[in-house]
Design brief:
alpha/beta; 6-stranded mixed sheet; 50% helix; 10 helices; 195 residues; single chain
């Protein structure tokens, strides 16, 4: 994807902007305004290149409490939030995530709330430059018949791994390495089970 993206950036006349973005100092307001008018996938690709260069494949999952603690003690965190205007769309949110990645110094992490944006949009934000997901790990949004916190972790772990990334949970406690997603049993149709 790197070569194809660089070719597309070159065709759009954006290689100088891409070079500056990959230095990691954050882009100027004029450069960000220019990118705001470009194809969303081009902007996303550049933001994800910056994320990959400075943060690698790891996604940190923070509980809401860990996020509050991090805001007070870690100036490295940028927080992207879903707009609440009547015309706000998921695409607008994702563009803002990508622009936030490109505006901030690249060493800073970019967090998205899966409670605020929803799990699917938060997962997509991982391809737009985000490297931290934040939300309720206590399982309040899972079905009561499931083991809440563990079910929530497995759900998030699966979403992140399907996005091609690795996971590290940070709950305000010492960092926990995430377990590998267990292999799911193959589900068969009723006609196959009858055989």
């Amino acid at each position: 994807m790197g070569r194809l993206l660089l070719r597309a950036l070159g065709s759009a006349g954006l290689l100088p902007v891409a070079d500056r973005a990959l230095l990691g100092d954050g882009l100027s307001a004029a450069e960000l305004d220019r990118l705001r008018g470009e194809d969303i996938l081009l902007v996303a690709g550049l933001a994800d290149l910056v994320r990959a260069k400075f943060h690698g494949p790891e996604v940190r999952i923070l509980s809401a409490q860990a996020m509050r603690d991090a805001r007070e003690s870690a100036p490295w965190l940028v927080n992207a939030v879903l707009g609440d205007g009547p015309n706000a769309t998921g695409a607008d949110f994702l563009r803002e995530v990508a622009l936030a990645r490109l505006a901030a110094p690249a060493a800073r992490s970019l967090a998205v709330s899966f409670d605020g944006a929803g799990l699917e949009l938060a997962q997509t934000a991982l391809l737009f430059g985000a490297n931290v997901l934040v939300g309720d790990l206590g399982g309040k949004r899972t079905l009561p018949l499931l083991d809440g916190p563990e079910a929530r972790r497995v759900e998030i772990l699966g979403l992140v791994e399907r996005a091609g990334r690795s996971v590290r949970f940070v709950d305000g406690e010492p960092t926990q390495e995430s377990p590998r997603l267990p292999v799911q049993p193959q589900l068969h149709s009723q006609s196959e089970q009858a055989r």
